[in-house]
Write the structure tokens for this entry.
Amino acid sequence: MRFPSDTVKEIFLKNGAAPYCFDSPWALMIGAKFLGLLPLLVYPEEQNQWQLVTERSVEKLVCTTRKFGALILGAGAAGLLCATEAGKRGRRVAVLELADRIGKKILISGGGRCNFTNLHCRPENFLSANEHFAKSALARYTPSDFIALVEKHHIPYHEKTLGQLFCDRSAQDITNMLEAECREASVELFLSTKIQEVQHSTEFVVRAGSNEFRAPVLVVATGGLSIPKIGATSLGYDLARQFGLKIVKTRPALVPLVFSKKEQRLYGDLAGVSAAVSVSTDRQSFQEKMLFTHRGLSGPAILQISSYWEKAQPLRIDLAPHRDVISSLREAKTRNLAAARAAFLGVLPKRFAERWLELYAPHSWANQDLEKLDRQLHEWTVVPADTEGYEKAEVTAGGVDTDELSSKTMESRKARGLFFIGEVVDVTGHLGGFNFQWAWASGAAAGRAL
Ligand code: FDA
């Protein structure tokens, strides 16, 4: 359907002054540039006379109001699951989405195969200022609940490693499934909907272009700030502030780290080399693979630790966890660079082993220097200059302060009828399907309470 206001904009953008005919609600409009304002001459059929109005008042006149039982902002993982749960319970639900399709992040997740949950999901797999907050929702919507949904839709899947479940075919199976569930629950999806303002009096009023949506309940599921190029916005945080809710400072998480200039010179050309390591901050440690990039470090071990890393803090990296490299050298008849090279090639990839010995070859082959070589290998200390930022981060840590929300329903304690779910909340999962599990669980918690 064409709206008169769209037509008005077209007229002004293209010509500044042009007559235009259309079906309804008015017969004719003429746009004209006048004293820097944009007045319009319109001829409403029902009034049978010409009127001079501004573009803004035309928009107001043609504004379409739609009433629902619940409005959900964001058709991502959390918003869609919440919508189906609420729809199944008989709520008339509308989901408003900025993008031209649902679940864009689901589609790019897990290398296109969506790591949709993790069999070993526990509260310890989540970061939050309140480590207990996520427990209730996670216990009431478990990985088995989501797996049951996946199996209901006959979606083939497999466990890759460490309990991580992926689609066999493509992530689109998950978005198709959620779309089908929405259809079954009579959820109405409004795509390409740019939200301009949200107000609350007796009910929530969301203005988007010439449309107005009203409902007694509003669920904010607009996700975090990561990957702005596919549509991440700060709307969720802005709304939280608008309604007086506190925000835990946001930061990029599950994100590659950037070397200092000096380290970039030393290791930048090792891009593509990976090694099984253990990486630690003061608080946390992960043992997984690490990957050199042109600018720094990535790979699962680094992405995991990045969620705990704070600027200027050192990372300790054990390059040969639980491996004794030096003892063979200590016991060797000939202690020399060739023997050291052989020992290092047993634990590190060739290019990295060679670079390491170029940089840290011992002054002598005495026990004391071998011990130093051993320490360096097991305690490589790196102080990253930065993260790769929201452009490359899988998630946003921090967000709506959980003290502001009910852990059972995700409803705001300050603004009744206002809910926050998914990544916008200060709950961040480890790598491996935990972030989706939080999106499903928090979405279900709210959906069942609407
Ligand atoms: P999500 O971001 O999914 O949805 C928010 C929705 O709100 C979006 O559709 C967005 O367009 C919409 N929106 C934003 N602003 C709006 C506005 N102003 N108006 C209207 N709509 C608006 N996790 C995991 O568990 N397993 C995995 O395999 C991966 N893989 C992965 C890969 C990559 C590259 C990324 C970036 C992230 C992952 N993740 C992941 C993380 C996972 O994608 C993320 O945690 C969830 O999608 C969060 O779900 P939400 O519904 O909260 O936000």
